[in-house]
UniProtKB/TrEMBL annotation:
<dbReference type="InterPro" id="IPR032710">
    <property type="entry name" value="NTF2-like_dom_sf"/>
</dbReference>
<protein>
    <recommendedName>
        <fullName>SnoaL-like domain-containing protein</fullName>
    </recommendedName>
</protein>
<dbReference type="Pfam" id="PF12680">
    <property type="entry name" value="SnoaL_2"/>
</dbReference>
<dbReference type="InterPro" id="IPR037401">
    <property type="entry name" value="SnoaL-like"/>
</dbReference>
<feature type="domain" description="SnoaL-like">
    <location>
        <begin position="16"/>
        <end position="110"/>
    </location>
</feature>
Amino acid sequence: MNEPVDTPDATTRWMQGYLKAWSSNDPDHINALFTEDAEYYTDPFGEPRRGRPAIVAGWLDHADEPDSFTFEWSPLMITPEMSIIDGVTRYAAGPVYSNLWVIRFAPDGRAREFIEWWMDQARPTEDS
């Protein structure tokens, strides 16, 4: 990371790093994305994971298996301090999720705050 995030290319690099970490579950890959005191919200209204050790531990506690998903994304907004990402996660087992991510960047290009919203795209049936 360690690059200012004032261009779409910088956001793309961060997202590539996130996808690498998501696919590998390697603590070094996860750590590289976040500042020491970063906050990671897995629920926009819940308590965040604070600091890299808590982020890594929470990530690994809920890790997806490598090759169990695909993720497509596009930026909705990019500023020097923040990117908003629209994404779709498709799991091999079937669930499909819409994602909205807010990433607030430190000057060095790592995330100081990450908030994710995810919604199951499954539509209710008449039986539910």
